Amino acid sequence: MDTPDKTQTAIKSLATTCEAIAHGRFDDVDELYDVVTNEGVPEDIRALAETFAGMVVQVEAREFHASQLIADLTETRRLLEAAEAKLKKENAVLRTRLDKLDVTYDEKQAELEIQQVTDSDYFKSLQSRAKSLRSKFKTDP
Questions:
Q1: Roughly how many angstroms between the first and final C-alpha of the chain, as a whole number?
Q2: pTM of the predicted structure, to 2 decimals
């Protein structure tokens, strides 16, 4: 039969352990399991201890999952920072190359090239054919 002493001790142990767990200290969780398995403790207190033990398992699982997510996010951040550094470096190289490209328009050179084209026999032939076609279409009714 349950003695008031065992019940009080179990309740005190349960309260102390639950308070530690509430403050994030899971070192005393084994005491919960001791209360759950102690046949000398009343059934309702053992059930309560078992419920708390189940909650501890869930909290630990969430904390483990959260720490895994944090680790994954930290790695993703590291990879993003490395990619950003690489892009900055590539952009700097491209900017340097772009600055070196100096496109200028040389008017004298352009006039010379135009003159070469317009002085060619082929261009003169095209001009003559175009003039002939224009005059032919103007006179046709």
A1: 128
A2: 0.53
